[in-house]
Amino acid sequence: MDKVLAIVGPTGIGKTKLSIQCAKRWNGQIISADSMQVYQKMDIGTAKVTKEEQQGIPHYLVDTQPYDQPYNVKIFQEKCRDAISQITKTKNLPIICGGTGLYLKAALYDYVFEEEQEDPAYTKYLHSLSNEELVQQLQKIDPRSLEKIHPHNRKRLIRALQICHSGETKSNREAKQEHVPFYDVYFLGLDMDREQLHQRIDQRVDQMFEQGLVQEVTTLFSNPDTWEYTSFQGIGYKEFRGYFQKEMTIDQVKEKIKTDSRRYAKRQYTWFKHQMDVHWYTPNDPEIIPNVEAWLQEGK
């Protein structure tokens, strides 16, 4: 089974820096598992790894997707698995670096996306229902799916009902998948004191504004038609909607990005601690190198 090192953790904790160090030490190549750094022209708000930071290490799935084209977990799964295959063929170590948990799980586990035909009339009907009515419908036909879907998450409620309508419930489909890794994966998670992490996040947001974030977002997204793009939904971009509508000042936008980033970091921790068998370290923990080294030697 091919070995894959996955460096995970919340936004702003130092995953990129560690991934470069690991790649240099173990002849690795890096695959980004960041749902935003994949977009072209979106450099500042995504804290995209720069050419200087890459230090000549090959990077995959960074700056490859036009920002006006949708990107999703199914596309990532396919491209990430292709990249792992390319890297292992050249006897290099694939290092996945990123904090988008669902992307990582889809690529590294037996996560299957079923093709189903959408029924436009049924979808239109679902959109006419209130959240409460959607929950009631799901309660009747797939109550188990409600254990994982928040009653206010309209998008996921509709998605689960669409899946049921296509012939099989969402929970049954997931139950058939064993959720075992396709690879020999070492999940290396970075953790630190929450107050310290929040300070790092705040400093990074301040730095983005100094680097020209307002200009970047204005150039790409000042036209309201672009607000429907998948790329605009990312933290660091979507908060500007109120500014464009003259309802928020730049300082308010900045504070909202900081707040949203801190909340996202909390959600990332929750995801990784419940979904994957992660080995947690502080960013400068001296145990990282010997422990990864020991894992790399296993099975040789």
Question: Are there runs of 5+ residues with pLDDT below 50, and where?
Answer: none
**Largest sheet: spatial strand order:** 3-2-4-1-5-6
Distance N terminus to C terminus?
11 Å
**Structural class label:** alpha/beta
As a whole number of angstroms, the C-alpha radius of gyration is 20 Å
Counted up, domains total 2
Nearest-integer average pLDDT: 91
Question: What's the CATH first level of the largest domain?
Answer: Alpha Beta
Shape: globular
By CATH's scheme, which homologous superfamily of the largest domain applies?
P-loop containing nucleotide triphosphate hydrolases
Put simply, the count of helices is 13
Task: Please outline what is shown here.
The protein is α/β, with parallel strands linked by helices. Helix content is 48%, strand content 10%.
What does this structure look like?
This protein is of the alpha/beta class and 300 residues long. It has 13 helices and six strands. Strands 3-2-4-1-5-6 form a six-stranded parallel β-sheet, sandwiched between helices. It starts with a strand and ends with a helix. The mean pLDDT is 91.
Layout of secondary structure:
Elements: E1 3-8, H1 15-25, E2 28-32, H2 51-54, E3 59-60, H3 73-89, E4 93-97, H4 101-108, H5 120-127, H6 131-141, H7 154-165, H8 170-176, E5 184-190, H9 194-211, H10 213-221, H11 241-244, H12 250-275, E6 278-281, H13 288-297
Parallel strand pairs: 1-4, 1-5, 2-3, 2-4, 5-6
Helix pairs in contact: 3-4, 5-7, 6-7, 9-12
